[in-house]
């Protein structure tokens, strides 16, 4: 089996580019026809509209600004739908993450093109035949075609649970997974810093994962997953706002959602739940490197200043950095978090294997190194309880966390293995 291909969307890059894919009411797509003159990037080629993010702009903010500057369009965040992120290497060796956003219902006559020779209009299939497409633009159209399939009537697919395991590290398990037809999710509650629960008899994190599971079952993640996630976040925000006791620190979690339809898997993750997709010899990994770097920072504080300094640092981060500009984004009570997810589409045939796992379980790979992602996905269902026993033995063999670096000695460990069935 080949080594896992990392499709993480938040790996270190030198530049961030916000691209706009404009779709007309009849389904046609509008792309930018670049000026054909020396000294400009992609001269004479066809690309998406858009440009580099400036300063501390979020990707969607850059997309809105570029739409105004290049096209005279006045967009709001709700006018955008995230399609995918694409990583590319520039000629000078630097790296760029291209974040592509869809704008639907565009009327070509309302556009004023202020950059380039104009736009090129056509169906996705027709545009894919154009030899002037840049690599990134061609890849964008391929993923957009997957998105169209995932949204259209067609082959009914279900996600069949092959195996699952969920082992608490403490009396209350703050992990929870759910499967509903073609959709599945895993929510990994963050152990609250404030040990006095306000929303649940024992754990506010448990309250959050239970409520989220109920909401996902109620609404059904059948639309683009960021849209479904935003609806869940609004309901959570309203529920917390109406609580009898004000919360200084709302509960938070990591979450991953997948949906299989018409030969396509749509995936979404926010924070450190991992998703592994295996289709034949192709292995795709969605892992969160930002959370890993944040954990390294906490461990550095502990080594240099002690446990009390870690607690103070975590309080500070929760108050000043969680779901804020310049900080980090998690699943909590902020609907804007849905604009900061790792999200995209992968082609998937019946028989494709999917593993969704909390970071407590994936310690077997990225902390203890006893297995690989593809082995975990394909061989794990044969003995999931044995994997948890191995995990707990490794954790207990290093109670001071000196041999294996990690924030907590033990963590809730949850994994669900799924097969795509037509």
Draw up the topology in text.
Layout: E1 5-6, E2 15-24, E3 29-33, E4 46-47, E5 49-52, H1 59-71, E6 80-89, E7 95-106, E8 118-122, H2 124-128, H3 135-151, E9 158-167, E10 175-180, E11 183-189, H4 204-219, H5 225-241, E12 253-261, E13 264-270, E14 274-279, E15 282-286, H6 289-305, H7 307-320, E16 342-347, E17 353-357, H8 363-366, H9 373-379, H10 384-396, E18 413-421
Parallel strand pairs: 1-15, 2-7
Antiparallel strand pairs: 2-3, 2-5, 3-4, 3-8, 6-7, 9-18, 10-11, 11-12, 12-13, 13-16, 14-15, 14-17, 17-18
Helix pairs in contact: 4-5, 6-7
What can be said about this structure in brief?
The protein has 422 residues and is α+β, with helices and mostly antiparallel strands.
Commentary on this structure:
The chain is α+β, with helices and mostly antiparallel strands and 422 residues long. The protein folds into two domains: 5-151, Nucleoside Triphosphate Pyrophosphohydrolase; 158-290 and 331-421, Phosphatase 2c, domain 1, CATH 3.60.40. The protein has ten helices and 18 strands.
Q: Give the fraction of residues assigned to helices.
A: 25-40%
CATH architecture of the largest domain: 4-Layer Sandwich
What is the number of E strands?
18
Tell me, briefly, the overall form. Answer: globular
Strand portion: 25-35%
SS content category: alpha+beta
Helix-strand pattern: EEEEEHEEEHHEEEHHEEEEHHEEHHHE
| SS field, number of helical segments | 10
Whole-number total of structural domains: 2
CATH third-tier fold name of the largest domain: Phosphatase 2c, domain 1
- Could you name the CATH homologous superfamily of the largest domain? PPM-type phosphatase domain
Give the distance, in angstroms, between the N- and C-terminal Cα atoms.
24 Å
Radius of gyration from CA coordinates: 22 Å
Poorly predicted spans: 1-10
**Major β-sheet annotation:** 7 strands, mixed
Average pLDDT: 87
CATH class of the largest domain: Alpha Beta
């Amino acid at each position: 089996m080949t080594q896992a291909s990392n499709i993480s969307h938040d790996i270190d890059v030198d530049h961030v580019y916000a691209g706009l894919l404009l779709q007309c009411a009849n389904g046609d797509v509008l792309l930018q026809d670049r000026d054909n003159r020396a000294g400009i990037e992609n001269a004479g080629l066809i690309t998406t509209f858009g440009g580099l993010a400036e300063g501390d702009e979020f990707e969607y903010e850059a997309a809105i600004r570029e739409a105004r500057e290049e096209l005279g369009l006045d967009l709001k965040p709700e006018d955008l739908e995230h399609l995918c992120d694409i990583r590319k290497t520039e000629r000078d060796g630097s790296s760029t993450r291209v974040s592509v956003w869809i704008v639907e219902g565009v009327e070509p006559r309302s556009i004023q093109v202020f950059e380039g020779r104009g736009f090129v209009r056509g169906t996705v299939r027709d545009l894919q035949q154009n030899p002037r497409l840049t690599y990134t633009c061609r890849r964008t159209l391929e993923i957009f075609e997957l998105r169209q399939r995932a949204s259209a009537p067609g082959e009914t697919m279900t996600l069949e649970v092959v195996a699952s395991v969920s082992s608490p590290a403490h009396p209350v398990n703050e992990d929870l997974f759910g499967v509903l037809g073609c959709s599945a999710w895993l929510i990994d509650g963050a152990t609250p810093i404030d040990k006095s629960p306000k929303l649940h008899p024992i754990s506010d994190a448990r309250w959050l994962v239970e409520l989220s599971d109920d909401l996902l079952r109620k609404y059904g993640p059948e639309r683009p997953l960021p849209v479904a996630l935003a609806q869940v976040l609004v309901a959570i925000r309203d529920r917390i706002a109406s609580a009898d006791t004000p919360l200084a620190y709302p509960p938070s979690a990591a979450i991953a959602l997948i949906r299989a339809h018409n030969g396509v898997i749509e995936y979404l993750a926010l924070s450190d739940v991992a998703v592994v997709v295996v289709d034949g010899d192709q292995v795709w990994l969605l892992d969160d490197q930002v959370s890993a770097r944040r954990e390294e920072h906490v461990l550095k504080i502990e080594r240099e200043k002690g446990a009390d300094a870690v607690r103070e640092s975590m309080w500070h981060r929760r108050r000043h950095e969680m779901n804020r500009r310049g900080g980090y984004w998690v699943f909590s009570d902020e609907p804007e978090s849905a604009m900061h997810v790792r999200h995209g589409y992968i082609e998937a045939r019946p028989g494709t294997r999917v593993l969704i796992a909390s970071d407590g379980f994936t310690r077997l790979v990225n902390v203890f190194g006893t297995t690989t992602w593809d082995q975990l996905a394909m061989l794990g269902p044969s003995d999931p309880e044995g994997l948890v026993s191995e995990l707990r033995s490794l954790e207990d063999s290093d109670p001071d966390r000196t041999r294996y670096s990690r924030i907590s000695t033990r963590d809730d460990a949850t994994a669900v293995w799924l097969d795509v069935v037509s």
